[in-house]
Structures are given as structure tokens and as C-alpha cells.
Amino acid sequence: MSSSSTTSSVPSICNEHSLARINSIIKQFNLIELPREGGLYQLIDQSSIEVSLSSQLKLHAQSHIYYMLTYSRPDEPQLAHNYLHSIENSDDLHILVEGDSVDYYLFYEDGHVEHKILGNDYTAGEVPVISTPGTISSKALKLRPGKNGFAFIVSVITPEWTPDRCKIGAGQSFLDKYIGKEEWCTKEFLTELIGPNWMDNNI
């Protein structure tokens, strides 16, 4: 992984054209801040089909969500991060609509980790679609600094996203499990991915 993927530095401001585009998307799709997890979002719709995870739990087969990460507000760094979290028993498919590249850090129950990049530079190994399985332990996203200052994404969550099934944050047991798994898995960087959601009980 290049050092640029783990840097904490962020652009201080987006240019006038980028700000206009960001604000236009936010207004057109009525994006609002996603508490604790970070970024901006808005539910598009839900599948008309229902599925059962158990005899007590019925869910829509999918949720479709607009999602944005942005550096347009330097005093609100949480808008450029999707802090460490997991969605219980749901696969999550992200499709880049427009904007800059995004780092995805994936943490699995068996202890292995992955780093992927959502973006349009396919020759550099970036991909336009990233899918994370519902069996994953947790994941975190971080917007890469770029000329646009944002990434606009469509998320398809199967079965649907519900707040009570989204577990956010981690603690010391997370660090103990994943520090040193890859070069980028330092205590400092993993703590940055957890962000303000530090807790004693690991997700």
C-alpha cells in the first residue's frame, strides 16, 4: 500500500467548482449527516420483497442508499470518513457514481485484513464496485484527497439496513487482534479508523 492511503492530512478547502458540485448533489438528493458512522446519506428506496432472517425477523430484501464522503467542510472531518462498523447479516455493495477514490479497510473474523480502493483508475488496481459480505467483522472507509474533494456512491445493502443491526466502533480487543496483520495495521492508524467511537466492547 502506498503511504498516501494512510496519511492523516486532508485538503483545507475544495475549489469553487468542486464546492458547487458537492452542494448541488447534497441539495438534489437531500443528503444528511450519518450520525457516528460518518459521511452523508439518504435512503433511495427499499425492495418490495421481504425476506426472513429468522422466524421473528422479517426485512426488505434490499435497501438502496445515496452516500457521500467529502472534504468540503474541513471543520467536520467525520464527513470524509466512514468509521469502523459492521452491518449484521447484510452484504453491502458500493458503486462509485462520481468523484475521487476511496480506501476500504476490511477486517475479517478469522483475523485477516484487506485493503481495496474504489475508484476509476483501473490500471492502478482501483475498482468501480466493492462488495463486503455480511459475515465480515468490520470495515472502514476513508476518502482519498483528490481534485474533486468528494466521492458520491450508491450503496445496495442486502437485506435492508436497519440502525439496530449496525454496530459502530471497537476497543482494545480489536487492536489486539489486528495490529501488525499488514504494514498499514499500526495502532495509530487503526485508532484513526475507529475514530470517535472507541469502546471497551469490541464489535
Automatic annotation (TrEMBL):
InterPro entries: Cupin_DUF985, RmlC-like_jellyroll, RmlC_Cupin_sf, YML079W-like. Transmembrane segments: none annotated. Residues 24-163 form the DUF985 domain. Pfam families: Cupin_5. This is DUF985 domain-containing protein. It comes from the Eukaryota.
